[in-house]
Protein: Endonuclease, Uma2 family (Restriction endonuclease fold)
Organism: Granulicella rosea
Amino acid sequence: MATTNLPTLSQLISVEEYLKTHYRPDVDFVDGEIEERNVGEFDHADVQMAIGVFLRAQQQQWNIRVVPQVRVQISATRYRVPDICVIPGDWKREPIVRVPPLLCVEVLSPRDRLKRVHKRIQDFFDMGVLAVWILDPVTRTAYVCDREGMAPHREGTLLVEGTSISVPLEAIFSTLDE
């Protein structure tokens, strides 16, 4: 795989070029344009790891697969890379996730804006994703999203309806106290 600098904002590339190019960190691809993801800061990585480890420990019990930063094909011209992706346990292994995940988790970085995240959320729901959670390490708030909007949670347990997925917020945000 080729490694490259990101194309300029006005430079469109093909799906084929996106799929054969290695980006560090990986990027979203939306209708011919590359969209950078805000990653790399400690609290973002710490919370991402905490939720990933928590969910991964439940893989067999809940019959799920948990992976970080995997390309998810939303449509023929859209690929998103959620921070954490939870897919059904019987998913047939492929390089790119093409079936709707049960859950996509996004961890906000200080530079992230909710408006930008809204576009990502809409793409996930358009694909058929059951649930989207946004975790904000700064405010220690989890936003549970559905097609009507998002509800903030600062305590309690996050659930994905129709599944066994159940995550106490304390188990995730307590990593920020260590």
